[in-house]
Each structure stands twice: as structure tokens, then as C-alpha cells.
């Protein structure tokens, strides 16, 4: 990420970095906007100028990590490329996100913060789901091009991503298992791709 030039951009980045450190160390409930401001060396008012609430700040962190991982990338269907090649690129970007230690640490914080707050949980899921809509649109285009069998593209995209998360996300978030190494990542990617194409490719 290119270092921001404007003072307001530098302050926003400092707030995000401070918040990441505080959330990872102390968890969501124990982290205050006052502490984030102190760690970022900015005023509390400055923090609120950028983020209206702690929930909004935390959601922004997850979005920043998601975007910086290029998990979605420019996910536009390309008829001249094979379905296999396009899905392989997508799954590799997705795996990079799921194996990002910062993202996993903050996902643990998010899960803990939302267990007792269903409204917060719904909002977090909704925000992240918006970032995952690209693959559903891609599948719909591939179906229209006759490269994938007909089916609900949203459900298919959920099932595809769920295969990765079942091995490379939830065990690490919920049970503290180690992140997958490169060899394990590749094996999971290959199996996920083969299983999906076996059932859905025309």
C-alpha cells in the first residue's frame, strides 16, 4: 500500500494500525476509542471524525484487510479464458486472505465480539458478504456462456468458498489450529477446484 500523502490520510492509517494492535492484544470489548487514539497519537475527536463508532472502525479494518489481499481482484468473467484458470486465480487470492495472520487474528476478535451481539454479527456478515458477491456474478456469467451447469450462482459461490473456509479458516479461528503451510494450501486449492468442476463444469 502506498503511503498516504495527505495529513488526514496519514492519520486515518495511524488509527487503523493502532486499532489493529489494540484489538489483537485486548479484544473488542476491552479496547476503547480513547486507547486507540492514544496509541495512534491523535485526539479522540480525530478518531471519531474518521469513524463514527468502534463497530464501524472494526468493520473498516476487516474491509481494509480484505481489499489489500486482493481476495476479489477484478473478478470479471473472461470468455476467452478457461473456467478452470479463472477459478484457480480466484481461489488462490481467497486463500491468501484466509492465510493472512492479521485477518485470522481479527476474525477471532470478530467472532468473540459478535457471539453475544446478534445485531453486530448480522452487520459484519452483511459487510463481508458484499465483498463476496463478485464470484456469484462471475458464475452467473459463466452459466450464461454455457461453461457451467445451471444452478443458483449465490448458493454455488457459498459452497465453493465454504470448502476453503472449512479447512483454512474455521479451524484456525475457532480452534486455534495453525495456518496452512504452502503445501497444504496448494492441496486444498486443487481438491476444491477439482470437486467444484467435477459437479458443475459442462
TrEMBL record:
DNA-binding region: 32-51
InterPro entries, per database record: DNA-bd_HTH_TetR-type_CS, Homeodomain-like_sf, HTH-type_TetR-like_transc_reg, HTH_TetR, Tet_transcr_reg_TetR-rel_C_sf, TetR_C_Proteobacteria
GO molecular function: DNA-binding transcription factor activity; transcription cis-regulatory region binding
Protein's organism: Undibacterium parvum
Protein name: TetR/AcrR family transcriptional regulator
Keyword terms: DNA-binding, Repressor, Transcription, Transcription regulation
Superkingdom classification of source: Bacteria
PROSITE patterns with a match to the protein in the record: HTH_TETR_1, HTH_TETR_2
Location of the HTH tetR-type domain: 9-69
Amino acid at each position: 500500500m502506498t503511503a498516504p500523502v495527505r495529513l488526514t490520510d496519514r492519520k486515518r492509517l495511524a488509527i487503523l494500525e493502532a486499532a489493529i494492535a489494540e484489538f489483537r492484544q485486548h479484544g473488542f470489548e476491552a479496547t476503547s476509542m480513547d486507547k486507540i487514539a492514544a496509541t495512534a497519537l491523535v485526539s479522540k475527536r480525530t478518531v471519531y471524525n474518521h469513524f463514527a463508532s468502534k463497530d464501524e472502525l472494526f468493520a473498516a479494518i476487516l474491509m481494509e484487510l480484505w481489499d489489500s489481499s486482493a481476495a476479489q481482484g477484478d473478478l470479471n468473467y473472461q470468455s476467452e479464458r478457461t473456467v478452470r484458470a479463472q477459478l484457480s486465480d480466484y481461489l488462490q487470492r481467497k486463500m491468501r486472505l484466509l492465510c493472512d495472520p492479521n485477518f485470522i487474528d481479527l476474525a477471532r476478535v470478530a467472532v468473540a465480539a459478535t457471539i453475544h451481539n446478534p445485531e453486530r454479527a448480522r452487520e459484519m456478515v452483511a459487510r463481508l458478504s458484499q465483498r463476496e458477491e463478485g464470484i456469484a456474478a462471475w458464475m452467473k456469467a459463466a452459466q450464461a456462456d454455457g461453461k457451467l451447469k445451471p444452478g443458483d450462482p449465490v448458493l454455488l459461490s457459498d459452497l465453493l468458498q465454504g470448502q476453503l473456509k472449512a479447512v483454512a479458516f474455521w479451524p484456525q479461528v475457532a480452534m486455534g489450529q495453525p495456518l496452512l503451510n504452502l503445501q497444504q494450501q496448494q492441496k486444498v486449492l486443487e481438491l476444491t477446484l477439482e470437486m467444484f468442476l467435477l459437479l458443475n463444469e459442462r
